[in-house]
Design goal:
The chain has 157 residues and is mainly alpha-helical. The model has no long low-confidence stretch (mean pLDDT 86).
Length: 157
């Protein structure tokens, strides 16, 4: 490397917040070519002037924009690029809403399963069962026997 303005792929990767493997991928995809490639070693070198594009590429990938749309974004003027960005965000918002509804439906079905009715007991049958349990547990004169059908609150209490 003879140009002092050039950075190795590792230095450039750290500077722009990408990995060296991501930079190699973006080079292969034609998204971000290195400024120089050493013909004898194949080492890639990047210039400071490539930092804004690399940072923008990283930001676009962080919001999930696919590579074909990023290519369009970079080829577009400012107004068209803003429209592409807005369209992408609108699509992601719709997708997020779709996922939220699906998760809500799944959660509701799980909650419904956890509250599954095992059996239903009519009131008189339940009262009879309470009477049987109360009668079989003994009687303490200090503890009133509660009958679900006949119990009334003590008005003095």
């Amino acid at each position: 490397m003879t140009d002092p303005e050039m950075m190795s792929i590792g230095v450039f990767a750290e500077l722009v917040g990408l990995t060296a493997s991501a930079l190699r991928f973006y080079d292969d995809a034609g998204m971000l070519r290195p400024a120089q490639v050493d013909p004898s070693t194949g080492y890639r070198f990047y210039s400071r002037s490539q930092v804004p594009r690399a940072c923008r590429l990283r930001q676009l990938r962080e919001i999930g924009m696919p590579l074909p749309a990023i290519s369009e974004f970079f080829a577009a003027d400012a107004d068209e690029a803003a429209r592409l960005l807005d369209d992408h965000v609108a699509g992601m918002t719709m997708e997020a809403e779709k996922l939220r509804r699906a998760a809500e439906t799944l959660g509701a079905s799980l909650r419904a399963e956890s509250r599954r009715v095992v059996c239903t007991v009519p009131g008189p049958v339940l009262a009879g069962a309470v009477d049987q349990v109360s009668a079989s547990t003994g009687h303490d004169p200090d503890i009133p026997v509660l009958n679900a059908c006949t119990w009334k609150p003590d008005p003095a209490a």
